[in-house]
Design a protein that fits this description.
This protein is mainly alpha-helical and 87 residues long. The chain has 2 domains: 56 residues, no CATH class; 31 residues, no CATH class. It contains 5 helices and 2 strands; from the N terminus they run ααααβαβ. A two-stranded parallel sheet has the order 1-2. Strand 1, helix 5 and strand 2 form a beta-alpha-beta unit. The chain is extended. The relative contact order is 0.12.
């Protein structure tokens, strides 16, 4: 029986490092990439870097009250122009 975290080891109690290149490699153009954030997490730097490396334009859009129509339009536009939308 495990009685404390030290017995489990870091592999089981610490999340793996986030790697945007691995996420992108596992993705397709038919499904969104969803990143669940925790306090203090900000993947925008990684997204900017990957977009630059892949030469992909993207449209960042903050969501909130009244932004649904803008988000829908941004997604539809990105589908046509083959770019990204970061919500």
């Amino acid at each position: 029986m495990v009685t404390n975290e030290k017995e489990l080891g870091d592999k089981y109690i610490k999340p793996p490092a986030f790697n945007m290149n691995e996420v992108f490699a596992d993705s397709t153009n038919k499904q969104p990439i969803i990143i669940v954030l925790s306090a203090g997490a900000d993947p925008m730097r990684d997204i900017l870097k990957l977009a630059s490396e892949k030469k992909i334009q993207f449209n960042p859009l903050s969501l909130g009250a009244g932004q649904a129509e803008k988000a829908i339009n941004a997604i539809r536009g990105a589908q046509k122009s083959q770019t990204w939308v970061v919500l």
